[in-house]
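Record 1 of the preview.
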Amino acid sequence: MSVVIRLSKIGKRGESRYRIVVTEKRYRRDGEPIESLGWYEKREKNENKEINQDRYNYWISKGAKPSPTVEKIVGK
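->
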């Protein structure tokens, strides 16, 4: 089983809102997640985010691979 941490799109068309989820690599982008770790919202001038760092670190320790975009978001 290959587990990844990636973004799942939510909201209306034209809005950049995402959930940060832990899911199986083979699942679709908006498929059923194993766990939701938080959310991310990008706006023109700023960005809002909320991430459960404890759970993020837990999944990394268990071998989950974050996507490059998630790595950038968590690193900010």
